[in-house]
Design goal:
Blueprint: H1 9-26, H2 32-54, H3 64-90, H4 94-133, H5 138-149, H6 153-170, H7 172-177, H8 180-187, H9 189-197, H10 199-204, H11 206-209, H12 212-243, E1 246-255, E2 258-264, E3 278-283, E4 293-296, E5 305-311, H13 315-318, E6 328-335, E7 347-353, H14 357-366, E8 374-380, H15 389-399, E9 402-407, H16 427-434, E10 441-446, H17 449-461, E11 469-471
């Protein structure tokens, strides 16, 4: 396995001082951001319900036809609001990203997405029943009349089909069967679905046409959503990447199926990146450049270069080994809340499994610490597969941290972070044997989904508050 040679002690100390100054300039993440953004989301939903009540929605419940039509409108309105909120969650708004972190965003995205889809289907069924109850066309005749006789309904049905495709591929079992590139492409249909489903309400919905307040509310929500996508999903990344070119400086093989890429350029110094965060990376090296892949930085950002280390798990990551120095790079980010800005405790436990050790390595390099403050647990199947192990040992020695490798294959039939040879221990007991005062630590975790869940559960059982356990999931 090829490993990198760290700079001499003096150079490393100078790099550490530059990193510390950058981190101090960035400052901690304000905790009220999460409360403010959560309250804003709930205010939108409550505002939708209030407008429905003000528009006579409750009074219309007196008859069967009115009941179906009124509840159908309510479910459609709430579904529309949630769909727009979901688009905002997908728009990579920095304050939302920093407030929630990737793990919470993924969970919220799933909850909001499935809720909005359920309400959307309910809206279709209830509205159809409501119109059918007041005509002699029957269910199918009414459905046909609604589709072909009302403005925007054909677009709405096409958008619904696009959203069905997104929801089906978001189910965990289906998600595991798809390559990342395929799943990512299908997931972008969420934008198309939202764009096709919602316009019919602007053309035919009474709630949009009969009240100036409602009209201003909905057009304002549409405008905010469109601005979030155009500015933060498209505009800001393009501006950052184009105003100061970033290019590949070095490509290095770390071991079988693992590649480290270092990039640099004037554009890097404009990026407010912290150790532990990730970027969406695009390399302009030929076919496939349009698909972004998320990789965490594996070295503390120094304002001059960025480095990540990735395993080859798909077409996008396998291409990394063929990159050439000088290749142009387009970046989106930095994203994620797995960084020192959320730290509230002096002692820290960094736990990484497999390639998930890479953000832990960057955190070990950047976190302010005294000897004994930081413990690094590196979970690997074998020592031969321990990515960046040599760097971690050197860094741990230089910074007075503890570095432990936990080797072995996973325990069969049990969701655990431990290897087979430790099957006699509970997950919590094993953690406490490594870190007896675990309850006093901040815990950062990165690895496979089930492994992270097992670590988090063990840490909570050992007395670590949920607010002090941090992990990131990249898939919805």
């Amino acid at each position: 396995m090829t490993t990198s040679t760290l700079p001499p002690d003096a150079a490393r100390e100078a790099s550490g001082r530059r990193s510390s100054r950058r981190v101090a300039a960035l400052g901690p993440v304000p905790r009220w951001w999460r409360d403010a953004t959560g309250a804003a989301g709930w205010a939108v939903v409550l505002g939708v319900v209030a407008l429905w009540v003000a528009g006579g929605g409750v009074q219309e419940l007196a008859t069967w036809s009115g009941f179906f039509l009124s509840t159908g409108r309510l479910t459609g309105l709430v579904a529309s609001a949630l769909l727009l909120l979901q688009v905002i969650l997908m728009a990579r708004v920095p304050w939302v990203e920093q407030a929630w972190g990737q793990d919470e965003l993924v969970r919220t995205h799933r909850l909001v997405g499935f809720t909005s889809f359920t309400l959307l289907v309910s809206h279709v069924v209830l509205i159809t029943l409501g119109y059918a109850a007041s005509t002699s066309l029957g269910i199918w005749g009414t459905t046909w009349d609604l589709v072909v006789g009302y403005p925007g309904m054909l677009l709405a049905w096409a958008g619904t089909l696009a959203l069905v495709m997104v929801v089906v591929t978001s189910v965990r079992r289906a998600r595991r069967r798809l390559r990342y590139e395929s799943w990512h492409l299908v997931h972008l249909y969420g934008y198309l679905g939202a764009g096709l489903v919602l316009p019919h309400q602007l053309w035919t919905g009474a709630e949009f046409l009969d009240s100036a307040v409602a009209t201003a509310f909905w057009w304002g929500l549409w405008a905010v959503t469109a601005a979030a996508v155009l500015v933060f999903r498209l505009g800001l990344p393009a501006w950052r990447s184009l105003r100061s070119p970033i290019r590949v400086l070095e490509v290095r093989t770390e071991g079988p199926g693992v590649t480290t890429v270092t990039v640099g350029g004037d554009g890097v110094r404009h990026l407010p990146a912290r150790a532990g965060q990730f970027f969406q990376w695009r390399f302009l090296d030929g076919p496939g450049w349009s698909r972004a892949n998320p990789y965490s930085v594996s070295a503390a950002p120094d304002g001059r270069t960025l480095r990540f280390t990735a395993s080859h798990v798909g077409d996008g990551s396998a291409r990394l080994a063929t990159l050439r120095p000088g290749t142009r790079v387009l970046l989106e980010g930095p994203y994620g809340r797995l960084h020192g800005g959320i730290r509230t405790r002096r002692k820290v436990l960094l736990m990484g499994s497999g390639i998930g050790i890479t953000p832990m390595r960057a955190l070990l390099e950047e976190l302010p610490q005294a000897p004994g403050d930081v413990t690094v647990v590196h979970r690997v199947r074998s020592a031969r597969e321990a990515v960046l192990a040599d760097e971690l040992r050197v860094l741990a020695t230089a910074r007075g941290a503890r570095y432990l490798q936990v080797e072995g294959r996973r325990i069969d039939g049990r969701e655990s972070w431990l290897p087979r040879q430790a099957a006699h221990l509970t997950d919590t007991r094993a953690l406490l044997e490594i870190v007896p005062d675990l309850a006093e630590h901040e815990v950062y975790v990165c690895g496979g989904d089930g492994w992270m869940t097992a670590v988090r559960t063990a840490a909570l059982e050992a007395g670590v508050p949920s607010t002090a356990v941090h992990l990131e999931r990249f898939a919805s």
